[in-house]
Amino acid sequence: MTIGSSHLPEERCADQRLYLLLDGDEASPEFQQAAAHVESCAACRDRLTELSGDHDHWQTQRELLTPIADDQPDTGQFYRYRSTETIFAQRRSIDETMVKQMLTAPSHPEMLGRLGRYEVERIIGVGGMGIVLKGFDTELNRPVAIKLLAPHLSRIGAARQRFAREARAAAAVVHEHVVSIHNVESNHANPFLVMQYIPGESLQARVDRGGPLSVSEILRIGVQSASGLAAAHAQGLVHRDVKPANILLENDVDRAYLTDFGLARASDDASLTYTGIVSGTPHYMSPEQADGRALDQRSDLFSLGSVLYFMATGHPPFRAERPMAVLKRTCHDPHRPAWESNAEIPDELSDIIDRLLEKQPERRFATALELQKKLERVLSDLQQGKLRLSRRGKSNRTWWIAAIGLCETALLAGVGYVWMTSAPKQEPPTPIAMPPASTQSVESIQARLQSLEGPQQADLDRLQYELITLEVTPFPEADLKEPTNAQE
Amino acid sequence: MEAWDAFVEIYEPLLFRLARSKGFQQADAEDFVQEVLTAVAKAVGRWVETEDRGTFRAWLFRIAQNLAINFMTRPKHQRLGSGDSQIAGLLAQHPDPHGESTQLFSLEYRRELFRWAAEQVRLKVSERQWRLFWMTSIDNQPIAQVAAEFGLSVGSVYIARSRITKRIRETIQTLEEQAR
């Protein structure tokens, strides 16, 4: 901290430092310095206001956001004339109306419609590229997933051709961790491809629902995804869109599947043709992809590194408000190591992620196979109890102390989080009140502890004791929020 | 498809409010919303067949605007009905840009744009920060007073409200660039 008389006022009042306050990471020392300066400089406070939006914007914002009719005054809660559930149900019915335009009449009244020999049952999801449907193959008598090219892409010649070409290439990849492609219908008015139906959820949904995964799950899913990727790379394919939403986890079976090979390409064409339609999330793109440079298979390794990071921390490595800003950060900013966000992550895993997230492709692993081998080794070390918690973490704590720290964080973070929610595992905000250690929360902590690797039975017993003491300690009333589940 | 989601999120409450301002009862207003959105969904196939069609998002926002304004300028509330030709007629009609309904529509559209953006941003910030922003920027309470009430420094209130304002502005900007 060397701010002092040596700094010229112009320097301290530079717009650049104010932009940092508007967009930067609140935990960074630069942010704190700039914030301290703004405290004593009225000119900078005015300038900060101006940089966030001009006078007209502030004025319009006030006029248009001021509560009207049935809005809740004071809180900024807008009146919505029906519940979220009804809105979603309604939206679904509107989506269905749109999809029905692309199908022929169904042969059963409870079905949505028909596409050739496939009966369409329902919409599974709506994504940037198209619509995924659950269907049934009437000839082979099996459930299938059908991906329909979005109507606004289906008339673009280049998009259609790419869709067909890439789908055929992807169909050539046959692997236990890649969703198989059964059929490609490219001559249909709305091109579609038919895939193996995987009952389950995407990795994105899993983490959104349950928060970061355990180290063994991260490694297992990592190994399987890397092996699927290696199989595709062996066919000369680059996936281009490795992201949590494209990794499917089968129900009740510990198996992950990669999906959506090469389809990202077809959408690239569309965005070139129709500027403005940029689909999908940029969070898992590699720097070379963000820059529009030539890609090879190592680009997928970067993306898989971002996925590992996401499993470990619950969020992608580079975050920002706008897609362009995410891409900029991907290209220029270093990421925060995974172990800093999640003390459970062992150095070995954190290092693998760091290496995958190297900006220069040549500094990453050379192949997906190499990554797979490396992850397998760490997984086997973990299973043999050879892994330890990050030594770079909180000094030389032993396993169970760190685990207790974890449940403390869980409890503290539950206290009405105070500042920006973007940094989940930083110092817990000033607690207002301790939440009640409800049975439910204790159970969830226990469940989490069970799933952690490392501690011996004696440690667990000791923890159990700690938790019992916690449970009987009276706490004042407060809302308990799971820190990992800030979504809803 | 994201274009479609943002569209529905903005238009649903907008259409409802427009209908209410035209003196519709709650239930009629809800029907109106459903009818217009369904009509637009059905018209998506038509966009695909248009030669000079521009971006999907721009088209979507334009036809919905035409549909809503034309609907409002009709003398009496008539059901839109399911006839495709009827919808096609409403879509093709170009509303008078200076008409009263057009003016009302653009004000209410802008209002909904801000409200939609505010809701997006609100999901991403803490409740406390939102309160700081709301009290000082919308309710117009003196910053020093709000800071004291929350036990915060004046500077941190400035930072919170500016951060949120910038995010709201950028959210609107991104959508407008894409709907152009």
TrEMBL record, chain A:
GO terms for molecular function: ATP binding; protein serine/threonine kinase activity. The keyword Kinase applies. CDD domains: STKc_PknB_like (cd14014). The chain crosses the membrane at residues 398-420. Pfam families: Pkinase. Residues 437-449 have a biased composition (Polar residues). InterPro entries: Kinase-like_dom_sf, Prot_kinase_dom, Protein_kinase_ATP_BS, Ser/Thr_kinase_AS. Residues 118-379 form the Protein kinase domain. Its EC number is 2.7.11.1. Residues 426-453 are annotated as: Disordered. It comes from the Bacteria. ATP binds at K147. Keywords: ATP-binding, Kinase, Membrane, Nucleotide-binding, Serine/threonine-protein kinase, Transferase, Transmembrane, Transmembrane helix. This is non-specific serine/threonine protein kinase.
